[in-house]
Amino acid sequence: MSSIMASPGGLSRRHFLGHMAATALSVPAAQFFTDLRANAADVRKKHRSCIVLWMSGGPSHLDIWDLKPDSEKNGGPFRPIATSAPGVQISEHMPKTAKQMHHLNILRSLDSKEGNHERGTYLMHTGYVPNPTVVHPGWGSSCALELGSQMSDFDLPHCVAINSPGAGAGFLGMSYTPFMVQNPNAPIANLKPPGDVDELRLERRLQMLSQVENQFIGQRRNQMAVDHKAVYGKTIRMMNSKLKNIFSLDSEPAPIREAYGKGSFGSGCLMARRLVEQGVSYVEVSLGGWDTHTNNFDALSKRLLPELDLGMSALVADLAARGLLDTTMIVWMGEFGRTPRINQNAGRDHWPRSWSVVVGGGGMKSGQVVGSTDKDGVDVSDRPIGVMDLIATMTKTMGIGIDTQYTTPRGRPMKIVDGGKPLPELIG
Amino acid sequence: MNSRQGRRVGRGLRVSAVAFATASGAALAWAIFAIPILATAGDRPASKSSTASQASVSAAGNFLDPLLEAAWKEAGVKPGKPASDEEFLRRAYLDVLGRIPSVQEARAFLSTREADKRGKLVEYLLNHVDFPKNFATQWTTLLVGRSPQGRMVDRAALTAWLRKQFAADRPWNEVVYDLVTASGSNRENGAVNFTLAHLESEAVPLTARTTRLFLGQQIQCVQCHDHPNNDWKQSDFWGINAFFRGVKTEDKNAPNAAGLEAYDHTELHDEPSNATARFEKRNGMMGVAFPTFLNGVKAGHGDGVIRRVELGKMITDPKSDLLPRAMANRMWAQFLGRGFVNPIDDIGPHNVPVNPEILDKLADAFRDSKYDVKQMIRWIMTSRAYQATSLRAGKGEVSKGGDRDDSVFNVMQLRPMSPEQLFDSLLTATSAHKTAGGRDDAKREAWMKQFLFAFGNDEGDEATSFQGTIPQSLMMMNGELMKDALSGKSGSFLADVLEQAQKQGRAPAPYMIDQIYLAALSRFPTAKERHAAMQYLDAFPDSLHVLQDLFWALLNSNEFILIH
Q1: What is the DSSP string of A8-44?
Q2: Cβ separation A208–B457 shorter than 8 A
Q3: Would the pLDDT of B446 be above 80?
Q4: A239: in domain
Q5: For a FRET experiment, which of A132, A167, B100, B366 has its CA 20 to 30 Å from that of A300?
Q6: DUF1553 domain spans which residues (chain B) (predicted)?
Q7: Is residue B525 predicted with pLDDT exceeding 90?
Q8: How many domains, chain A?
Q9: Could you tell me if residue A388 is inside a domain?
Q10: In chain B, where are the structural domains located?
Q11: Which residues of B are less than 8 Å from A208 in CB distance?
């Protein structure tokens, strides 16, 4: 069944070639093809992965990464502390992560216009604002397509989302939809066939299934028929794989489990490490509850930050210790930041105008702060960073050509990176 | 664009469809094909050349067809080729009843050679007891979502209320009016639950859902800022929101089974109000909105004014085309896989329809039919677009324009079943519920929850179907329901097939194979498929295992789960 790991057949995918047609004059063909081959080999060897720590609800950046102790109105009760990165300070409630900051960078000047959860989530996952004419693929799905297709002999899904479904694959189709792990502390449901179905019967079932699937596809219908088979192919492959126990944390030593924390976020981070170790391209781990319109400071100091601090710091330290950090990019983000002004309920509201994202690993430079906001945290005072700049940085770090583009079902081109530039502060 | 204005058709000679005594037992399922169909295709003027304007729901007299044909010509695509009987049968059952046909139903339709059997099938389905049930299920999801609601929302009462409306053929404008204005006990008046479900956050969710569902307008984005792509302003959102300012709720207790006072139901009522909706603008200033409809008309003042009643009147104002257009586009999308406008509830000048004229005509016809939902379904299902096959013409890869061919409705889209369709179809095919003591709503809910991965989506919305994820495939392959379905226990479909086969005088194998194909795929096996299955049965002594495996394969296939 492994032969049915289909590439996106009906999807007319242009990749570099489409771009070349547009810029034929600027890139000599010979050089273009050499680059292409070199690039593929390079990625295979270096085996890049990305872990996104997704903070759903819109985390309060001003109380985590960009504290304003000198702002009387907006500062809030938290104090900044020094970190392992010279001159970089973060919240006192992130003491363990503070010791890992030399591996990470804080981008303090994100700037978007989407202050609605749904739209902000879409924007941060795809790089695009929602548009009625097309459903953009999540960046993770594009990643799975680009990097996964270079490692066709692979038993696991290339794109995994832990604790929440992540972004969809948009027009790339269902075979690039993230594999969702609902609860990293529980076994994957239904992974085994029922007891009375032995290997012989499973084989017979798959033969029979293959016949009817192929016949239906052969009758020429739309892409969904092909995608269905591809998903089943991946599923069956995983069912039969030696790696299927990768989703069980039981074999991890107790001190490791403790270090990450045994909640769904900590366990998700540990699972993410296990997955990238095997070569999964994109893993997203969610931690929800950041929509702190009321009692922001209590929620952060008692509940959210301790859990985040444990999981995030353990993940960075563990990846570094295993030599995986150079090839694994970490991105911490949510759909927007929160208002500098503290409302009458001791909460902060939605704020997409000036906020923070944290990135590191994957061969980036580290230990830096890029961009800044003013004294009260209201406006970007230096180096505004657009969401597409972030996407460009992530794309380049992963070794994916930032010129990569697809053709949407309506026949229009869609670039993975549309108008953004990788941040030179992070990429040499 | 305004051509529809001058062509309003006079009130119709609508002949209501004959309500057939609904076939309650499957054994009666095909009896209807012997009954002459008296329902009319309706009050639309057939094209002048047509002589079939009376008493027929067949494709021949459908007013949509000339428009579709013109659209195909203009787009330079080949006209839709008709679907086979098998294709049509399956999609019609799924779209109208929310499930695949049973073996008996499939056999009845496929074997009859009556004239206009498709038209008759449409009529049969629209009069089937599962039609109001299916539409009530769908609209419950649209109105209050799939995730379990708080105790305030009596989902079952809402579903029961909707079922009554669809069973009674209530005009859509009246149903909508009732949903928008309902008050009283949420247990006795199920319609109340729509409003109850969305009152949190100053009724912001109610504002968004009301305009999306009934008017096809997405104004939720302008809650926080004016819209960049269309004309909506922040004040438009809060103007609608202000209509909900007088709504009050009260929880009522009553003695429970143990004789203790406990929560019983919630009462909802309106109080006359002069309150405005206040909102924060981007610049930090406060805005104030009076109850104002999307066309700028304000609600009246004074003691007797109930704001939701005012809103209900404005939404259903016969002079406004928002309501019929929204429903026409939604119904078209439900049956064809895509709306004229997509997303289907974002209609407006900023989002040009694929075939504006067809949408206009369908919406006008719907209004002129007095918002007759069944009549609209008849028009859609008997149109050449709905009758088109999902097989693509020609050879080779999808043409350069991607799926452009599909966008003008000359080829039927493949669509994934909704979870409800999938569940009910699995039960129809396998009788899994009969092995475990009846169709159990709690079991269905548990299954759905697992299937949907309900948690994690903060917006808790309806936009989920078979996404083709690995966990969903695992559930289909190895899950509990499939185990029950294939168990071969007494009462199950497989047990019945084996029993029937033994009673037969002639060779049982071909009969068993036919039954399994009909049950799962609503068609007979091809010669090749039959031969292959026979070989398996010959080669392995345990025929139950072979049949189980074959059934498993068919139920897991793309052909089963995709509506085609």
Answers
A1: -SSS-B-HHHHHHHHTTTTS-HHHHHHHHHHHHHHHH
A2: no
A3: no
A4: no
A5: A167
A6: 307-439
A7: yes
A8: 1
A9: yes
A10: 99-387, 415-563
A11: 536, 549-550, 552-554
